[in-house]
Amino acid sequence: MPILTTGHVRRVLDGAEEQVVDAVSRAYRLHAAGRTVLPRPLFLRFPEEARNRITALPTHLGDGGGTGGQEPVTGLKWISSFPGNPDAGLERASAVIVLHLMRTGHPEMLLDGSVISARRTAASAALAAALAAATLAPREPQTGVTLTGCGVLDFEVLTFLRALLPESAEVTLFDLDPARVRAFAERRAPRGPAARAADHHHRTDRGHPGGPPAGLLATTTGPHLDPSDCPPGTLLLHLSLRDLAPETILSSVNIVDDGDHVCRESTPQQPAEEQAGHRDFIPDSIGAILVGGRRERAPEALTVFSPFGLGVLDLAVADLVRHRTQEQALGTDVLLPPGAR
Questions:
Q1: Same domain for 89 and 161?
Q2: d(CA 9, CA 2)
Q3: Do 277 and 146 reside in the same domain of the chain?
Q4: 120 burial class (0-12, 13-18, 19+ CB within 10 angstroms)?
Q5: Residues 337, 4: contact at Cβ < 8 Å?
Q6: How far apart are CA 134 and CA 147, in angstroms?
Q7: Is residue 337 helix, strand or coil?
Q8: What is the pTM of this model?
Q9: Are 307 and 256 in contact (CB under 8 A)?
Q10: pLDDT higher at 192 or 120
Q11: Are residues 168 and 227 in the same domain?
């Protein structure tokens, strides 16, 4: 059974933004068509450190899910989130993914899942922004993007946004740690466009020329953003699911990846549903838009994309990695019991 390290995964995914987006888009379409199996995730929490968790996401993509043809794909993602890690110089999240043989159920490949998780999230966010630009019909093109939080995920999202929306011009950065802003801007500099630091996160969504901005929220804090600071037509990529209050969700146009999954685990959508007594504030999912086509949105409204993080997206990208590493003969083999392969 091959084991793929972070280095192997980066090697085959660097520069493959278009292929990753294609894999994520295909998974969304299959999910919208009912051709996935996606049990509720299992959360392992710790009484002595409530904000830490490790999550198991078993998942299955039906026919058409595989990168190399029409074969189905099945597997498990095991991902941890320890928000205090950055203070110790470590990444907040780490993950592994196991792919299984469909004919026997035996494990076929073990992959480091941290890069896969970050890039499928980035692809999902960039796809939402592209759909907003192409099918949700804002009055003007979105040419600026603001990042609240300057971590690994934000860097990946900006890379994918530039791949899908190359017309995006101005990038504004905010983080509670100014050193992270400087490091982020320096790392982005060779890739362009130039990024500027914001004086205050409540003002980061203002001042983009050419059209309403897109805002990226990927932090480890609780609700903090006042939507009155966002100009009309703003698209918020609410990746952390913790930055907006339920009242903001109820007053916005909400796009999600799956309504059942996003309305739980203390996301703002959960109390919003409890307050409203319905989910009418979630008119669409990405998969439904991809399958059904154009949607109109109120040009003055705030549009919020809140992805819970479907395991089928990780599975689709992991399958892409599997095929590309097999083509390049990458990975370290370990022995399995007789008959396991």
A1: no
A2: 12
A3: yes
A4: buried
A5: no
A6: 21
A7: coil
A8: 0.85
A9: yes
A10: 120
A11: yes
- How many residues does this entry show for the chain? 341
Residue 112 has which token pair? 């480091």
- The model's pLDDT over 298-331, given as tens digits with 9 standing for 90+, comes to 667 788 888 888 999 999 999 999 999 888 877 7
What is the average pLDDT across 23-39?
93
CA atoms within 13 A on the CB side of 80: 13
Give CA–CA dist 3/99, Å, rounded.
Answer: 11
Q: The CATH number of the domain where 167 resides is what?
A: 3.40.50.720
Neighbours of 114 (CB within 10 A): 21
Q: What is the pLDDT of residues 268-300, one digit of tens each?
A: 999 999 999 999 999 888 999 888 875 655 667
Contact between 61 and 315 under an 8 Å Cβ cutoff? The reply is yes
Task: Name the token pair of 256.
Answer: 């999600």
Beta bridge partners of 223: none
The arithmetic mean of pLDDT across residues 13-42, rounded, is 93
Find out whether 251 and 298 touch, Cβ atoms under 8 Å.
no
Cβ(218)–Cβ(157) below 8 Å: yes
Place of tokens 């599975």: 315
Structural domain that includes position 35: 2-117+311-333
Contacts of 143 (CB under 8 A, 6+ apart): 167, 168, 169, 170, 208, 209, 210, 211, 213
Of 6, 3, 272, 262, nearest to 119 (Cα)? 6
β-partners of residue 77 are 57, 97
Angstrom distance (rounded) from CA 319 to CA 73: 7
Neighbour count for residue 164 (Cβ, 10 Å): 20
Q: What is the rounded distance in angstroms from the CA atom of residue 59 to the CA atom of residue 80?
A: 17
Helical segments of the chain, H only = 6-13, 17-32, 114-134, 152-164, 178-188, 246-250, 259-262, 269-276, 286-292, 311-328
Q: Is 54 exposed, middle or buried (0-12, 13-18, 19+ CB in 10 A)?
A: middle
Residues 6+ apart with CB under 8 A from 339: none
